[in-house]
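Recall the central idea of this unit: under ordinary conditions, the amino acid sequence of a chain determines the structure it adopts. In this exercise we apply that idea directly, starting from the sequence alone.
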Amino acid sequence: MGATPTAGRLSLLLGLGVLMLATLPRYLAGGHETRLSLMLISLAVVAVVIVLQWRLLSREARSRLPALLRRLGLFLVTGLVVMTAWHTLTSDFFGWELLVSHGATLGLLLHALWLWVRLPR
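Accordingly, the structure predicted from this sequence is:
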């Protein structure tokens, strides 16, 4: 505990929320009500943490957040494009639910790796 909130952490939390939302159609289509319920509860917890992190964020860090969110959006779209190409080359029809879920996962992973590489040393 005791870690100070940063714009990078908040962008990762927002990306996690988007990822969790992107997995919901898979659970709906597959009839996994228990997993869907657990995901919705987890999403509510992540939303509360996002609000708390936002309130603790300094003004300077808040000013850096729009650029990070644009970068997150770019990585999410990139993840969707890469997963579309990957699934097109390696599998039969897979459904848009799987594509959105895998694309969001790859996008968030790329965003996290980009933040990790860009950390000040």
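The chain is about 85% helix and 0% strand.
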